[in-house]
Amino acid sequence: xxxxxxxxxxxxxxxxxxxxxxxxxxxxxxxxxxxxxxxxxxxxxxxxxxxxxxxxxx
Length: 58
Description:
By secondary structure, the chain is an all-alpha fold. 45% of the residues lie in helices and 0% in strands. The chain is flat, with a radius of gyration of 26 Å.
């Protein structure tokens, strides 16, 4: 008869890995314009959804 083995194994953490330092970037130029465009688009879409829900289906 076959025996069942546990499929999950506990792996001890490796102590030699060092954490990576994260840095914050500041978008410049056209990337900043695109980000602002996305923000405006999201706000407009939320407003349209709210208008749609308040009027309902007639």
